[in-house]
Specification:
mainly beta; single chain; 2 helices; disordered N terminus; 437 residues; 5-stranded antiparallel beta sheet; 35 strands; 4% helix
Length: 437
């Protein structure tokens, strides 16, 4: 093939498939870092948001994943039972858990995979985990621990696991919520059971490669992969400690004790240079320093009253010497210093209209010099965050809140940003809105 023909072929492929490099194939984006890297995006939101398409959907906290022109999402079709969202008890439901695949351009349903799944959960409004798409496969995890590998084109089952049957894992009170992680030929999951808090699978066959650690419960924190000092480390935070693990063998490199209240390790620890920040509700936080020569770590500081950010439902964002995150205890968006956790400012504007809303939630996604924020109120917000404070640029209603938390209406689902659009859902519909300039 001549250079001219090769160049022409590449140009043609880019013209036919403009979104090949602009997908959102898993929770928090291509790199799991909450950064949207597409260009040509609006500077401010229009006076009214108009959806490219909207389609019906059922119950679910699962966010959408977008890859190769398809949207993948999970939901729950309830047949019986009542959703009370009482944090102190499990509701009993019957119904079907589903994986839906839609055309990203039109919203048309391409295929669905469904199975009967009784729920015994607190806040049982559907599956929690965003599908992880990797080439020809899509990996899904249901609220009661049903792990599936499906073909991305047709939704055929390649392999599946039951965390309860295969590992003796008891579903934690608020359901399995740790989004599966694909890295190379491996799929990493937080499972539970004796010796199997973390498990690595061969992604193509489902064969178990290793299992590691024991804890009272698996927690809810997604596994994450970092690289530091030239070594890859799998980060797993269970209800007793934050751990750096050899992803090849499952051996634990290092462990820092950090036990959140109610065993609610939820937000993924965030790496910033040689630092790793982990936090949870009830004044639980640790800034961890990674060793520059070997896979090891030490504690730098702990959180304290009126210090740090205690995020839970959402993962904080670290940049330019600051931690930005929605504090679970105060319900406000907080900016705090990385060096010592000192709070520089807080604002309730992007989270809720109620004063000090418990477990307030807003998802932060960085785009160039600003953030796209999706609030639990169903608002889409463009804002700038800095050490000086919160500067709102524009806001429009994106979705109606359809679930409830402590007496207020909420939408708790991380959106996807791909193809110059936002893809978002509540418990009634999935929508796609263009954000192209």
């Amino acid at each position: 093939m001549t250079k001219r023909v090769l160049y022409s072929t590449i140009v043609l492929l880019l013209a036919v498939h403009p979104a090949l490099a602009e997908d959102w194939p898993q929770w928090m984006g291509p790199n799991r870092d909450s950064v949207w890297r597409e260009t040509g995006i609006v500077e401010t939101l229009p006076d009214r948001i108009t959806a490219k398409w909207r389609v019906p959907i059922e119950w679910g906290y699962s966010g959408p994943a977008v890859a190769e022109g398809k949207v993948f999402v999970m939901d729950y079709v309830k047949a019986s039972g009542k959703i009370t969202n009482n944090a102190g008890r499990r509701d009993e439901l019957t119904g079907k858990e589903r994986v839906l695949c839609m055309d990203a351009e039109t919203g048309n349903l391409l295929w669905k995979h469904e199975y009967d799944r009784p729920y015994s959960l607190s806040f049982p409004g559907g599956p929690r985990c965003t599908p992880a798409v990797d080439g020809d496969f899509v990996f899904t995890l249901g609220a009661e621990g049903d792990l599936c590998c499906l073909t991305a084109d047709e939704g055929k089952v390649v392999w599946s696991k039951s965390f309860a049957k295969d590992f003796g894992s008891k579903t934690p009170p608020w359901g399995h919520s740790a989004h599966p992680l694909v890295d190379g030929d491996r799929l990493f999951c937080v499972v539970g059971g004796e010796g199997s808090v973390a498990v690595a699978f061969d992604k193509k066959t489902g064969r178990e490669l290793w299992r590691a650690m024991t804890a009272p419960e698996p927690g809810y924190c997604p596994p994450s992969m970092i690289e530091h000092a030239g070594v890859k480390q799998l980060i797993v935070w269970h209800p007793l400690s934050v751990n750096g693990i050899n992803p090849e063998t499952g051996d634990v490199y290092w462990s820092i004790p950090l036990a959140p209240s109610y065993r609610m390790s939820i937000a993924a620890p965030r790496k910033h240079g040689d630092l790793l920040y982990a936090c949870a509700m009830k004044v639980k936080a640790a800034m961890i320093k990674l060793d520059s020569t070997k896979p090891a770590a030490e504690e730098v500081w702990r959180g304290g009253i009126r210090e740090a950010v205690y995020a839970a439902n959402t993962t904080p964002f670290l940049e330019n010497g600051m931690i930005y995150g929605v504090d679970c205890d105060t319900g406000s968006l907080i900016g705090a210093r990385i060096e010592d956790g000192k709070r520089m400012w807080e604002s309730f504007k992007p989270t809720s209209s109620q004063p000090r809303p418990r477990h307030a939630t807003a998802f932060l996604v960085k785009h160039e010099d600003r953030f796209f924020i999706v609030s639990e109120t169903g608002d889409l917000i463009i804002a700038k965050l800095s050490p000086e404070g919160y500067e709102e640029i524009s806001r429009q209603k994106l979705l109606e809140p359809t679930n409830t938390c402590f007496g207020r209406k909420v939408v708790w689902s991380h959106p996807a940003f791909a193809q110059k659009c936002i893809f978002a859902r509540n418990d009634e519909e999935m929508i796609c809105v263009s954000l192209a300039e």
